[in-house]
Amino acid sequence: MANNELEKALDILDSELKKQGLSRREALKVAGLGSAAFLMGSTEVEAATLNASDVKAKIVIVGGGLSGVATAARLTNSLSNPDITIIEPNPKSVSYQPGNTLIASGIYTKADIEFESKDFTPKGTKVIQDKVVEFDPENNIVVTSSGEKVSYDFLIIAAGLTLDFGRIKGLEAIGELTTLGDASSLLNTFKDSGVCSIYSVDGAVKTWEEMQKFIAKAKAGQKVKGVFTHPNTAIKCGGAPKKIMYLTNARLVEAGARDNAELTFYPNGGTMFGVPEYHDAIVKQFEARDMKWQYNHNLVAVDLENKIATFNHHWKEKGEWDKDLEEYAMINKNEDVNVEFDFLHITPPMKAPDEIGNSAVGSAKGFVPVNKETLQHVKYKNIFSIGDIAAVPMGKTGGSVRKQYKVLVDNLISTMEGKPLTSKYEGYTVCPLITDIGKVMLAEFDWSKKPTPSFPLDPIQERYIWWLLKVYALKPMTMYGMLSGRA
After folding, report:
1. CA–CA distance, 135 with 365 (Å, rounded to integer)
2. In whole angstroms, what is the distance from residue 352 CA to residue 160 CA?
């Protein structure tokens, strides 16, 4: 199965490159990817042989998505006698979530990103198809929704985030969702209102339907408004709210209807991107495409019937002079702003599931508090966390997990062996920012908030080669590289 999927992706990659007069080897050389053995046809990214440790312990992983399964696979490769249990309710939890944006723009279908988790679960790993609802870290026990008590020596929390649509007035009926879970409440609430969200797989399918209606109106000569939001919480894949806006723009241009559509981005923050170089590049791209933006706007309500989005606009004003501090006091100001829309893409507020965020292993902010470098829990030394749910700055992308899971496994085994934790996650994050159909800006950065390009190319340039990487190569690299524990 893995080889067929990989060969198909590489055949498509070769076909697309041939149209440009390039071989795969030539293209990868241009892109600085000549040493990427995986893309040259190898089934492994890492050639290094892992030296298996003989240390023994019972390891439980809460969450069987990309982070959890990749970590289980790496542990299986790294331990001579692994005892690993994954607790996960969804049999399709390893589905390729970065593909949601491509589903929402008509490039992928839902079938392109859905996989059976059993096809990727490491041999010998026990799977409990249930949900953990209680944590007892003092006694090293978790409890599932069916009442089963599962003990552990070491615990890894990789459960992902909850989509908190119910926090938005008018969307209370949706409540809380997961990306891969039942989205019937979302679909039943949105109906044909022009409102959508790519953060649910079924929601991404709905987004493509709504986008086509939006484009049809513009093509028929109607003046239409598209609104795109970014909330006041941490989110998975911070670039996605902009990606769907770029792709809506591309589809409008393709249809010859762009002049009839106004597209506006409403982020809660005051920048386009946390890395200045990428922020500047995105602003220039927005200006070139006549896409508008309004900073410091957080979506707080939606009137589906009248198609009005309400934002809390917040800012600071200079107050009185403080003689002691020799500076002006800054006064927080805010107002609600109503915005009409024909098409509204919502990036919902996100948080850890309540059973985790509000438990002894959670934190006041809802995420699992870990040392950002070692990924070890700040209080319980036999607990680690990884991926979207871990309380680390940035790092909520699949590319981040690719770096994190190796660090976590190294440090977990060191802890098991009673050794110091020497492996460090340096904050590496990668976001293939789709800016057009056929163009991607590969944003790579770390704690320094400076571009950290892996390839000898200007990192702020939109490139076709990164589009090929995003659309054809990253999925098999993830599914058959990371999920084997070797990429």
Report:
1. 17
2. 7
Measured distance CA(15)–CA(31) in Å, rounded: 17
Alpha-carbon distance of 244 to 238, in angstroms, equals 12
Q: Quick: pLDDT tens for 153-165.
A: 999 999 999 999 9
Asked whether 70 and 401 are in contact (CB, 8 A), the reply is yes
Alpha-carbon torsion angle 407, 408, 410, 416, nearest 10: 160
* Dist CA 19 CA 14 (whole Å): 9
For residue 85, what are the β-bridge partners?
60, 126
Is 60 inside any structural domain?
A: yes
Q: Which distant-in-sequence residues (6+ apart) come within 8 Å of 200 by Cβ?
A: 100, 163, 177, 179, 181, 183, 186
Q: Is residue 26 part of a domain?
A: yes
State the DSSP H helix or E strand holding residue 71, giving kind and residue range, or none if neither: helix 66-78
Cα dist from 422 to 375, 376, 405, whole Å: 11, 12, 14
Alpha carbon of 224 to those of 216, 239, 245: distances in Å? Answer: 10, 24, 14
Q: Which domain holds residue 27?
A: 2-160+352-430+471-484
- By residue count, the chain amounts to 487
Is there a single domain that holds both residue 154 and residue 47?
yes
Number of domains in the chain: 2
Residue 401 to residue 474: CA distance in whole angstroms: 14
Per-residue model confidence (pLDDT) at position 38: 40
Within-domain flag for 460: no
CA distances from 312 to 156, 157, 268, 333, 423 (A): 37, 34, 9, 10, 42
Residues near 128 by Cβ (< 8 Å), separated by ≥ 6? Answer: 85, 86, 87, 88, 144, 148, 150
The catalytic residues are: 237, 431
Amino acid 329: pLDDT: 86
Q: What is the pLDDT of residue 35?
A: 33
Query: Buried (b) or exposed (e) across 302-314, using 16+ Cβ within 10 A?
Result: bebeebebbbbeb
Residue written as tokens 């992308």?
397
All residue ranges of the chain with pLDDT < 70 are 1-10, 12-13, 16-17, 20-50
| Predicted local distance difference test score (pLDDT) of residue 44 | 39
Based on DSSP, count helices (H) and strands (E) in the chain, helices before strands: 12, 21
Q: Are residues 246 and 154 in the same domain?
A: no
pLDDT value at residue 141: 98
Which of 350, 384, 412 is the C-terminal boundary of a domain? 350
CATH number, domain of 125, equals 3.50.50.60
Tokens coding 28:
């990868």
172 and 150 both lie in a single domain: no
476, containing H or E segment = helix 474-480
In a domain? residue 200: yes
The sheet with strand 176-177 has its strands ordered as 176-177, 162-164, 350-351
